[in-house]
Design goal:
The protein has 350 residues and is α/β, with parallel strands linked by helices. It has ten helices and 18 strands.
Length: 350
């Protein structure tokens, strides 16, 4: 992603996208494909990394293909839930997913956006001013603003869309991720369950595996990893590839998704948890819906509800279970009723 050399003074456009991560770039591509002039503002240069599981569901790959994006990665055949002495596997029925480094995905989306003529400014949104005709932020005047600026969205806050409620106790969850240099031993995304945390194992290359941990505040990566004996044995002797990255708290809420000519998209619009690995699929669906309903905020609110319904219900229910005293029953129940586990995986993978 290359910054526009004319990044000083006022710029005018149809659609201003705040945030140049994957969802922001996807929203920019959607808007260009719809015939709009687009400017993205993003203060960070180059391919942006983030703590995430890096597993793309089959439906996510189809959504990216529709945008003209096909990132390199490692094929994923399905999902495996694992606990000491038990596991249950479910292969995707609709075709493979793909493990893709976050930086690789970002670079592919940035290249597609540049190919379509999206302009990128190295700026940060700190405030938003709008009236009936347009919106102004980061020195850009636009007809609409798509806020794709992540979990801790500045646009959500300054437009009064940030909900005050914040989870406490066991439902206040965080994520950590590190890569290890080793050949993948599986073509499944493995979800290992321990008493207080989950470990997500995603092959992302022929010699690289990502390990993401989800759990309570204050996690130390190596200390938590030690609680997954099967995983520790698998990666014994493997060298870390890069630093540990963190994100959270994961749960975020917005009072609504629209304010005048502003639309919240992706994590900025609200987030439940990374437990089901659906964030990007849902974000891409929101980006498409936002572009299709630019002139109708009520239509976007309805489309957002529809696009996120399964994610909110299934992820919310699973997080409630995972943060309750019944947590230890998740893998035994999934293993004991494989059709139920498979139905949930397929619903999330579509």
């Amino acid at each position: 992603m290359t910054a526009d050399p004319t990044a000083h003074g006022t710029t005018t456009t149809d659609v201003l996208v705040a945030g140049g991560g994957p969802v922001g770039l996807a929203a920019a591509v959607e808007a260009r494909l719809a015939g709009h002039d687009v400017v993205v503002v993003e203060p960070r240069a180059g391919a942006i990394d983030k703590a995430c599981g890096e597993g793309l569901m089959p439906g996510t790959l189809r959504a990216l293909a529709r945008l003209g994006v096909d990132p390199d990665g490692h094929p994923l055949r399905g999902i495996s839930y694992r606990a000491p002495g038990r596991h249950v596997d479910h292969p995707f029925r609709s075709g493979p997913g793909r493990g893709v480094r976050r930086t690789t995905l970002h670079a592919a989306l940035a290249a597609r956006a540049a190919e379509l003529g999206v302009r990128v400014l190295a700026r940060r949104v700190t405030d938003v001013d709008q009236d009936a005709d347009g919106v102004r932020a980061a020195g850009v005047e636009a007809r609409w603003l798509l806020a794709c600026d992540g979990l801790h969205s500045t646009v959500r806050r300054v437009t009064g869309l940030d909900a005050d409620e914040r989870p406490a106790g066991p439902r206040r969850r965080f994520g950590l991720r590190r890569h290890v240099r080793t050949a993948p031993w599986t073509d499944l995304v493995e979800v290992h369950w321990a008493p207080a945390a989950e470990a997500y194992v995603t092959p992302v290359g022929d010699d690289l595996v990502g390990i993401a941990l989800l759990g309570p505040p204050g996690m130390a990566f190596d200390d938590v990893l030690a609680g997954f004996p099967e995983l520790v044995e698998r990666i014994a002797g493997a060298e870390p590839a890069g630093a540990v990255r963190g994100a959270g708290p994961l749960r975020q809420r917005a009072v609504r998704r629209t304010a005048g000519r502003v639309r919240l998209v992706g994590d900025a619009s609200g987030y439940v948890d990374a437990l089901t690995g659906e964030g990007l699929r849902v974000g891409l669906a929101q980006a498409r819906a936002a572009v299709l309903t630019l002139d109708d905020p009520r239509a976007y609110e309805r489309a957002w509800v529809e696009a996120t319904r399964d994610y909110r219900i299934l992820t919310g229910g699973l997080v409630a279970w995972a943060t309750s005293p019944l947590r230890r029953g998740i893998v035994p129940v999934a293993a004991g009723i494989p059709p139920l586990f498979g139905a949930i995986v397929e619903r999330l993978a579509r």
